[in-house]
Design a protein that fits this description.
α1 crosses α7. It is built from seven helices and five strands, in the order αβααααααββββ. β2 and β3 form a beta hairpin. Helices cover about 50% and strands about 15% of the residues. It is an alpha+beta fold and about 200 residues long. The N terminus is likely disordered. Strands 1, 2, 3, 4 and 5 form a five-stranded antiparallel β-sheet that branches.
Amino acid sequence: MKKTKHSAIIALCIFSAFLISACTSAQREQSSPAIPDKKIRPGTPAVSEKTDAKTAAENEEYLRSINHIDVTKKTFEDDKAAIMASIDELSSIMTGGRYEAWLKFIDEESIRYWSNPKNLERASKMLPVKGLRMNSLRDYFTYIFVPSRKGRKVDEIRYDSKTSVKAVQVREDTDIIYYYFNKINGKWLVHIPPID
């Protein structure tokens, strides 16, 4: 019985990475405006080239991230810093299994939706381990949210609007989405999408 339970939990952890919109992939747009090359005078130190390359990379990330949304570079930098700080805190919270602390980072809409027994029942039917039921939001935290994000690294953000952002890991031409954030009353909170 103990071996079956252990196997069920392992299977659940593996599958949860692909479950219930916890993580999705999206093709990145290939068309981003060109960034003009800066001319470097002969004899200019290599430090200038490194700085120019870093600046160009930051500009490319900014253009990828705003996705034609009217967001200033300063706003982007502030939003990214706040979101990455939240993700770092969430990582610590997930490692410690601190459910009550996690709730402070989740938007009210998600808490209401994922506290509904009917939604949890629908999600339970999609789990790879038959017979495992989620009965509470705490179960969602334990069996879905934490395993699907454990050990993952978020590199960048992508704006859907000025108040809606995806936190992604960049892999070649694909963005792997680990978090959705909504800005509510000036604070970025995690939004957990409903089951489609």
